[in-house]
Amino acid sequence: MPVMHSLLSALMFLAAPGAAQAPVVSTTATATPAIPPPVPALWDPASDYITTGQDEPGYRAWYGTTALHPIQIKAFNAYLNQWGVGGIVPTWQLLRTATAWQHCGAQPFEVPPMAEWPHIVQTLRYIHDYVIPAVGPVEPVSGYRNPSLNQCAGGAPESAHKHYSAVDLVPLKPITRERLMRDLCGAHARRGPDYEVGLGFYAFLRFHVDTTKFRRWNMDPAVANQCPPIVRPSDIATVAQPLQPVATATPAVSDSGTAQAVATPAAPTTPAAPATTAPPAAPAVIKTPERGQRL
Fold first, then answer.
1. Buried (b) or exposed (e) across 178-214, using 16+ Cβ within 10 A?
2. Could you say which DSSP state residue 286 is in?
């Protein structure tokens, strides 16, 4: 027995160094790299309609394609300032034509004929006084469309865009489509008749404002029920009657650099003051604009 006990003691002594040298496993948890929070998407509703070439770099390129463009734009800016509507929105955005300009082989920007300039003044007044206070800053995405571009883009035959009374806009402040409609139709019900405002809605957040005839279209049903009804007959195919220009001659410069005589734009009209008498009773049948009509 003493011999056996001595052997066991020797074996335990030999095994001790191996046990002491066994690897030590760390129980400390490895730190996981922090995942940054997602970056919120940039609010840019105009990107749904504006392509490369109709953005600001595209405007700068278009501006320099002919010596006539700077002359025309300077005169247009002076006209807007003369009638107190300069700077309500950037002038270069007011010169955007149609979203389908590339498909139609048209120019991304165009200075309208002088005879049409008075029509945009009334529309800009309404945008300044009632649209921007209701929904915040806005960006024009389509203004004047010449007859051939209007036809190619699918506009109504007598679209207000052809006479530069209409502007399609998007809000620059985050807002839902339902809130946009509700806020705009409230202002439209109050002052739309005095300015003869047409108000329409298209896909996403794009909406249309003109000052040719009081009407409203393409409202979502849930929101339309919350807006005051339009009690007068509506005609969606509205045309602005061009104002006769003053016969005063003003020198201009053609593409070739020669002087020409052009008519001075006519003075824009001014909306009537709000009526102080009670509104007339609504007719028995209320007609509403057709849905889906494009202007």
1. eebbbbbbebbbeebbebbbbbbbbeebbbbbbbbbb
2. -
253: CB partners within 8 A, 6+ apart: 67, 68, 71, 259, 260
Cα separations in angstroms, 160 against 136, 216, 241, 265 = 24, 14, 10, 18
Helix 68-82 with 56-63: angle, nearest 10 deg: 120
The pTM (predicted TM-score) of the whole model is 0.69
Contact between residue 91 and residue 80 where contact means Cβ atoms under 8 Å apart: yes
Which DSSP string do the residues of 226-277 spell out, in sequence order? Answer: TSPPP-S---SS--PPPPPPEEEEEEEE-TTS-EEEEEEPPPPP-PPPPP-S
Tokens of 17: 């160094």
Domains of the chain with CATH codes: 45-264 (3.30.1380.10)
In angstroms, the CA 209 to CA 131 distance is 9
The number of beta carbons lying within 10 Å of the beta carbon of residue 154 is 11
How do residues 223-248 score in pLDDT, each as one tens digit?
888 887 775 544 333 333 333 343 33
Render pLDDT for 9-58 as a digit per residue (tens, 0 to 9).
655 555 555 444 555 555 555 666 666 665 556 788 888 899 999 999 99
Look at the block and give the residue holding tokens 């003691």.
Answer: 9
E strands of the chain, at which residues? 138-142, 167-171, 198-201, 207-210, 215-217, 246-253, 259-264
